[in-house]
Amino acid sequence: MGSKRLVLAVDNSKVTSETGEECLKALDFALEHFPTGYSYHLVHMQPRPFVSAVVVDVVCCQYDYENKQAMTAAAASNKFMDEVFVPRAKSAGADVCALVLAVDSDNSSQIGAAICKYAEETTADAVILMRENKSEVSRFLMGSVTRYCAVNSPIPVVIVPNTI
């Protein structure tokens, strides 16, 4: 592995739309600006399915369903990372570690906190995030993972503009 670690948060929630391409732009930015001596930790935060209120008799069935749903989502995320992000990074000669990590919800601050925690635990030298293409209203109402990390991370955060 390289001597320095970069954590690059990737999103595959809209695989066929701009989001996947934007994250590829962030990866390309990292590969261009941090070309040698780095290992890339590509992380995707997978929200767990919502736990719904169920009658005691069907708790086990509901739990099994949610586990299967979570496992299916995680498998799809792993496949996407292995087919899209990892080959792109490896083709540039980078050392790559790709992970899908579970978070309790799809709330921006929980996802941001999980990214920051992972970066701290792996003693990353920097976190690289794509600037989200959200309106000011969306950022206010729903939050922003990038903003959360920029404000709360003890690790330096590099924000890649979405116009590159």
Give a short overview.
The chain is of the alpha/beta class. It has helices at 18-33, 59-91, 108-121, 136-142, 145-152; strands at residues 4-9, 38-47, 95-103, 126-130, 157-160.
| Count of individual beta strands | 5
Order of helices and strands: EHEHEHEHHE
Name the CATH superfamily classification.
HUPs
**Class from helix and strand fractions:** alpha/beta
Overall 3D shape: globular
How many structural units, i.e. domains?
A: 1
Low-confidence sequence ranges: 14-19, 51-63
Largest sheet: 5 strands, parallel
Strand proportion, as a percent range, falls in 15-25%
If you average the pLDDT, what whole number results? 76
- Count of helical segments? 5
Features:
single chain, 164 residues, alpha/beta, Rossmann fold, 5-stranded parallel sheet, globular
What does this structure look like?
- The chain has 164 residues and is an alpha/beta fold.
- The chain has one domain: Rossmann fold (3-Layer(aba) Sandwich).
- The protein contains 5 helices and 5 strands, in the order E-H-E-H-E-H-E-H-H-E.
- It has helices at residues 18-33, 59-91, 108-121, 136-142, 145-152; strands at residues 4-9, 38-47, 95-103, 126-130, 157-160.
- A 5-stranded parallel beta sheet has the order 3-2-1-4-5, with helices on both faces.
- The longest helix has 33 residues, at 59-91.
- Residues 14-19 and 51-63 have low confidence and may be disordered.
What is the element layout, followed by pairings?
Blueprint: E1 4-9, H1 18-33, E2 38-47, H2 59-91, E3 95-103, H3 108-121, E4 126-130, H4 136-142, H5 145-152, E5 157-160
Parallel strand pairs: 1-2, 1-4, 2-3, 4-5
